[in-house]
Amino acid sequence: MNKQEQAADFQIEKVSREFETFDVMGGSSRWDIKVHEHGMVALVDVMPRLVPIGMTADFAIVQAARVSYGDGTKRVEEDRGLIRYLARHRHTTPFEMVEFKFHHIMPIFVARQWIRHRTANVNEYSARYSVVKDRFFRPSEDSLRQQSTTNRQGGDQQLDSLTTEEFYRYLDSVEAHYKDYEALLNKGVARELARIGLPLNVYTEWYWKIDLHNLLHFLSLRMDPHAQKEIRDYANAMFALIQPIVPIAAEAFLDYNLHSMRLSRLEIDALRTGQPLATKNQRELSEWAAKKTQLGQVDS
Ligand SMILES: Cc1cc2nc3c(=O)[nH]c(=O)nc-3n(C[C@H](O)[C@H](O)[C@H](O)COP(=O)(O)OP(=O)(O)OC[C@H]3O[C@@H](n4cnc5c(N)ncnc54)[C@H](O)[C@@H]3O)c2cc1C
Predict the structure, then answer these.
(1) Are residues 211 and 196 in the same domain?
(2) Beta-ladder partners of 42
(3) Which of 19, 33, 117, 145 could be 52's S-S partner, Cβ–Cβ 3.0 to 4.6 Å?
(4) CB neighbours of 111 closer than 8 A, spacing ≥ 6?
């Protein structure tokens, strides 16, 4: 028996939907948000794309969870309670039943941070195959920051006007090399070699597909104030795109993840006893001071 004959042996039963559906993207082929001057976050597809009328893609989380918890009532308020319970208790697999496909255009220094997240499927623009476009990221003046004195990985106060000018001159000079790149391509240098002198603020693009659980993990790290502002701008745009698609899961994410706080055993002891934190580690002490401020507790 050949393979085709084998396949013909299966009887496929096509079950019609029990409910009227609508498209969670409202019939659009993509939802775009511009980020900075040249960047973009576009939502290009969602699974589930079709959901029962009156529901959102949160539906797929509840549907999967009910396999483990049994058929509950179908009332939206109870679906909300179930999703929030799952989020609080880190019962994560039902969140993997929703998937998003994005098209991103971002500077290479942002892509470098982004690609560290290993749970997405990625297909990137090839600078071996195609010519890198003449697009460079330029921070706006109000986002030019000085090196932070307290956080080695961050910047805080705005640059003075003289240093601002110098910074833009520095970008002008590296971006001017784009002409050399073009000239070398015209002389027949391979694209894969000509590109190696381009600066990190040149743009790349990719298709990026991820499930909701792993997307929320990405967003919890990259919407956090500790993340670099430029990748945070992209993460915030992605959150704005998924919020109307999975509003209940998005709200639970804000409540139980992004705006929540983890307390260590030492911190719980300090709260319970009113004693100082039992450590001499300066970083841990300053993190505790920040948490206490957030909790509205001020040291006397
Ligand atoms: C503010 C900030 C500063 C950072 N600074 C640095 C830095 O200085 N240097 C640096 O190198 N990186 C740095 N990173 C990157 C960071 O260390 C992580 O690599 C990145 O955030 C991806 O996190 P992740 O591994 O949890 O995410 P993902 O790759 O999306 O993985 C999600 C989860 O899947 C699981 N997982 C995925 N792959 C594996 C695996 N192979 N084995 C086991 N578990 C796996 C883990 O539980 C992981 O948390 C920084 C990140 C942030 C947010």
Answers:
(1) no
(2) 32, 103
(3) 19
(4) 124, 204, 206
Considering the domain architecture, whether residues 52 and 194 belong to the same structural domain is answered as: no
Element (DSSP H or E) covering residue 21:
strand 21-23
**How many structural domains comprise the chain?**
3
256 and 269 housed in the same domain: no
Is residue 250 exposed (0-12), middle (13-18) or buried (19+ Cβ within 10 Å)? buried
Q: What is the tens place of the pLDDT at every residue in 81-138?
A: 999 999 999 999 999 999 999 999 999 999 999 999 999 999 999 988 899 999 999 9
Q: Does 254 share its domain with 270?
A: no
Q: Which amino acid is at 193?
A: L
Distance between Cα 118 and ligand 1 center (Å): 8
Active site residues: 222
Give pLDDT tens digits for 199-210. Answer: 999 999 999 999
Mutation test of ligand 1: which of 118, 151, 208, 217 has the most ligand atoms closer than 8 Å to its C-beta?
Answer: 118
Half-sphere exposure of 24 (CA within 13 A, CB side): 26
